[in-house]
Amino acid sequence: MNGLFENTKNLFKGKPLKETTDAIHLVELMKTTRDELTRIERNYEEVTDEDLLDYFMYCRLATEQKYNYLIKQYRAITSECEKQECM
User: How do the domains of the chain map onto residue ranges?
Assistant: First the structure.
């Protein structure tokens, strides 16, 4: 668990990602983020209070940005690995 936290911390601090394990870690984060986005969308559809609608809309936008960032990082790692033939 400590390694997972450390990898996530390094990812969001902007430290370079090089190893195949980083790509695997990104895939895990992408799956978790996609599940989180599904939960947020489900809650958004069920809520009637306007304040909560605003909250879930904000959460949805933030989570979508996070997911897009992870995809961009994954593509950068995999294209770099393909150039170096590390996979």
Answer: 31-87
